[in-house]
Amino acid sequence: MPSNADKLLSKARQSKAGWMPDDLLMLYKGFGFMIRDASGSHKLVSHPRFPAIRAIVPVHPKELGKKYVADAVKNIDLVLKLEKEAREDE
Amino acid sequence: MNERHAQLWAKAQELAGRGYATIISNDTLSSGETIYLAEHPELVGCLAQGHSVEDALQNLQMITVDFIYYLLEDGLDVPDPAASETVTGSSSVPLKTVQLTIPLLSVQEVPDESSLDEGSDTKMQFRQVHDTHSLPA
Question: What is the pTM of this model?
Answer without folding.
Answer: 0.79
